[in-house]
Amino acid sequence: MKVRNLEITSDCEYLVKQLLDERLCLLPKCNLPIIERNQLMYKHLTYGIDLYTKYGANILQKIVKKLWLSDDCNYELFSSVVDELLLNEISWIQICGLFALIDRLSIFCKKSGRIYIAKIAAENLIVYIEKNLRIMEFLEKNGGWVNILDNQVVYEDIEEFKKIILKDGLKIIVLSLLCLWRYW
Predict the structure, then answer these.
(1) The 3-state secondary structure of the chain, one letter per residue
(2) Which pLDDT does position 172 carry in this prediction?
């Protein structure tokens, strides 16, 4: 079933606004319509965010810091920083990672009184997903946001993500040891 870009974009906007409402406790709420499908998508997205945060916290921390330190969080900065989160092949867990970035940034911005950065970053995320052909093709190919509901897919993605993180970590350790050995 081919999903239209408009549906993908509107679902993305819903998920981003729902995440911001929940994390920032915005008043008044954006009064999004309560649709069971949307609630399930959001529930499973937050599950994916939790998984990504658990296994990719070290990646998220440095990226959140870069965005928080900027005063305007412009799109160019946002897209260059977010590109660091995406690996060669797009997966559901990487998409959850994009939302995990907004989640962590929102929490940090709320504590420090810089909520406007989280709002700008959230808007930038929507634009980023719309403009990123790899993400849009992935979402179209996989039937849109509703298929994030399949926990097995997210679980398989996280297992692959953990392997990639482990490989990258080992590469960094080996390179560090080589540099240490060479220059010592």
Answers:
(1) CCCCHHHHHHHHHHHHHHHHHHHHCCCCCCCCCCCHHHHHHHHHHHHHHHHHHHHHHHHHHHHHHHHHHCCCCCHHHHHHHHHHHCCCCCCHHHHHHHHHHHHHHHHHHHHHCCHHHHHHHHHHHHHHHHHCHHHHHHHHHCCCHHHHHCHHHHHHHHHHHHHHHHHHHHHHHHHHHHHHHHHC
(2) 60
